[in-house]
Design a protein that fits this description.
Blueprint: H1 3-21, E1 27-33, E2 39-46, E3 49-57, E4 63-70, E5 73-81, E6 87-94, E7 97-106, E8 111-118, E9 121-130, E10 133-141, E11 144-149, H2 152-158
Antiparallel strand pairs: 1-2, 2-3, 3-4, 4-5, 5-6, 6-7, 7-8, 8-9, 9-10, 10-11
Amino acid sequence: MTFQKLFLLFFFGITSFISAGVPTIEKTYSKEFYENGHVKSEGWLTMDIKTDYWIYYHPNGVIKAKGHFKNNKKTGYWYFYSEINEKLKEGHYYNGLAEQWWIFYDIANEEETKFQYKKNKKNGFALIYKNNRLIRAEKYKDDTKIGEWTSVIAFKRDNPNVTF
């Protein structure tokens, strides 16, 4: 036998031996149902741990929330909806906690509020829009409002170094 043939036999033999001894981690698609038969949630599991894309539903079958998981914790950008399919809020999760900018929709008052979050709490500014027009800015620290402005001039005067 030539060296090349011996090397190939050795390589494939070692590869087969190693792969036979390593357990495979299987990713499965999971669905949970309400008693009425509608899907309650669906998404990917790896060893009973939520991973990748998931969708949650209201009992009437309308999407309630959708986004990604990593190690059983929400991660990335998520969307949340009402039972009549109106968008309620959307924003970023990191390691299961709300982070960065979140948008909340108040359909009844035609308002949209953008909040800055850090570690699941309002920390930073909130910008409140009505009919797509900025009407107010607020400042939060640990979920407590500590400032409010209704004019751009007053906001810039009190926060000269802030840019969005």
